[in-house]
Amino acid sequence: MSARPAKDQTRALFDYPPYWAECYGRAPFLPMNRAEMDELGWDSCDIIVVTGDAYVDHPSFGMAIIGRLLESHGFRVGIIAQPDWQNADAFKQLGAPNLFFGVTSGNMDSMINRYTADRKIRSDDAYTPDDIGGKRPDRSTIVYSHRCREAYQDVPIVIGGIEASLRRIAHYDYWQDKVRHSILADAKADMLVYGNGERAIVDIAHRLAAGNPIDEITDLRGTAFIVDDLPSDWIIIDSSKIDKPGRIEEPVNPYVVPQDGAAEAAGSPCQDGSGQTSEQSPAISADTSPALADLPALEMAVGSTTQVLTFMSREERQAIRQQKRNMTVLRLPSYDMVKNDKVLYAHANRVLHLETNPGNARAMVQNQGGQKLWLNPPPIPLTTEEMDYVFDQPYKRVPHPLYGKARIPAYEMIRFSINIMRGCFGGCTFCSITEHEGRVIQNRSEDSIIKEIEIIRDEVPGFTGVISDLGGPTANMYRIACKSREIEANCRLPSCVYPDICSNLDTDHSSLIKLYKRARELPGVKKVLIASGLRYDLAIKSPEYVEELVTHHVGGYLKIAPEHTERGPLDKMMKPGIGAYDQFKEMFEHFTKKAGKKQFLIPYFIAAHPGTTDSDMMNLAIWLKTNGFRADQVQNFYPSPMATATTMYHTGKNPLKRIRRDGEEVPIPKSGTQRKLHKAFLRYHDPQNWPMLRDALRSMGRNDLIGNGKQHLIPTYQPKGDQVGYQNARRKNSTPLDRKSGRGAAGVGKVIKGQILSQHTGLPPRETN
Ligand code: SF4
């Protein structure tokens, strides 16, 4: 395989001539067995999606989105969901696909799905019928890919979804406590699709259908593959040493002559600081650059020498710059280097995060033990028309009938909720949404959202008039964006809201307010709730929005995530200070009172996040007690693949800043004892934690917090029979939600003032002790 510059891929998702198999029409459900294929009159599938989740035909499930989208292009798509992976039999049940296998672990990374934050195995799985654990293997993407290969040696395999996306380069794996290869190398698949995969997967399907071999498809954004050699006509920037994190190149000389172009390339950062040339890198030169070759030239005679001067407009200069950028690849430190050197690992992570904006990201290459992994830049965000196209497919909005009456908790949770957008510009370091969905918000149109509410109202069984959520990764980023598309395309900042709200961010919430109003006025809709997490520092910029939200869309309580109270961990999370929470709380209480309602704010916190000291946790506990909060369920920081905070956890370095060997050391609560202590501080009121907290407070010199008065954190006594409050984690994980106690999923159960939850995986809360 050899790389080619990634196309801009601005061709609309719906702008392809349909594949010939369109004549079979749309399937009521994508088939999961031969009998269903027979009923549809299919002799074979064109594409088979293998997934670790149960098949739910709903736009919140990856296999349904990709399957229905490809179906809309005329392809026959089959689903193999949660197959028995012990041998290849289950992977043959639909026969060989004509074009490719699409393999995904499902909506979650399989290791996060299977294990708690303390690496204990879960007994449940919200994406499986009846919530039963153990229906998918560890590292599902790898296992499924191997079985597909065993089943049909020559069928191309394309891996995608969150697990593939976040493990696309060499990455730290928390469960093995080591750095692993790119998942593409381990899976031995042909191609990896990362981020929002729609554009790439549609193009791949059409090109394979047109007879192009998979190893010739190397110009698609959002894809990764193995290359034999690095292309000789690209600029290679060696970023394999500290610290050369992909600077933006010099402005192009407006009077550039062809010879200058060559000279510039020769002096390009193809060499590292030590002067070693990392790769032969003949850069774009006058005669190889079409942009240059096409330009009008003015010849001038100067003495006896003839020089060619080229006058260029701003647009032409930009085109040249873009041309250069499109043919530039960053060399990341190799797998072996980042495996053996934590500082280089942190550096590689920083470089990767600097290359996430599709407006200016460059290709990257990383050696993986003898193989060269090539990553094209991220996909271009979907337009509103394209988002509508994806969400307007004829989803049945229920699990496949094969599951009968089995309950699938992840489906139960979202079946009356609407996803209105994708992406997040918050950049919280413990979260991987930016790395996966990107920082540019991709919005659906109001009409498409309203239409979906009407479909739910009219067709989804069990609808009682309550839309349980109108949100997305963040509740209030709908139609919020940078004031200028041009600035946005050039921006390299990791967040639009940290350390403060960027002055270029248009924080106007009026589109969201209008949408809320229209949604709740629909006949047959009694209530529209907002259950997605709210970015409260953004919300306070629009008091009208907060009033609208508080007056009409809060179901007793509203969850928000300050995550901590102390500046140390907050800075490592890229979260605003607790002052913004206080401001929002004031607004929330003011408008709640004005509306004559009784409702509460539920703040979420993370224990043991990188950058957190014991004192930070103690101060958080004091804040909780002072404010009358008692955390019901708490979660320690969970180092998920590729998150910036995970890099801090692994390396002790801070990739938010330039990495230096003698740079900042981040305090990491890593040992089991310290993680336990941090969690205990969050549950300071639980007698089981008091002995540990007393010891900790004494060793911190804070005996003043031990006593039996209101001003104390922990009492001096220990009650008898102090087993209250906790259940065995595994038992609790498989125990149905207790509605009476108020412990349960967002939107269900009794609201208890002062009771808070500290887990926001998007799933029903559960103890992860
Ligand atoms: S300039 Fe500001 S608002 Fe615009 S993309 Fe960059 S951080 Fe976001």
UniProtKB/TrEMBL annotation:
It comes from the Bacteria. [4Fe-4S] cluster binds at residues 424, 428, 431. Binds 1 [4Fe-4S] cluster. The cluster is coordinated with 3 cysteines and an exchangeable S-adenosyl-L-methionine. InterPro entries: Elp3/MiaA/NifB-like_rSAM, Methylthiotransferase_CS, rSAM, rSAM_horseshoe, rSAM_sf, UPF0313, UPF0313_C, UPF0313_N. Residues 271-286 have a biased composition (Polar residues). Its cofactor is [4Fe-4S] cluster. SUPFAM superfamilies: Radical SAM enzymes. Coiled coil: none annotated. Keywords: 4Fe-4S, Iron, Iron-sulfur, Metal-binding, Ribonucleoprotein, Ribosomal protein, S-adenosyl-L-methionine, Transferase. Residues 260-286, 709-748 are annotated as: Disordered. Signal peptide: none annotated. Belongs to the UPF0313 family. This is Ribosomal protein S12 methylthiotransferase RimO.
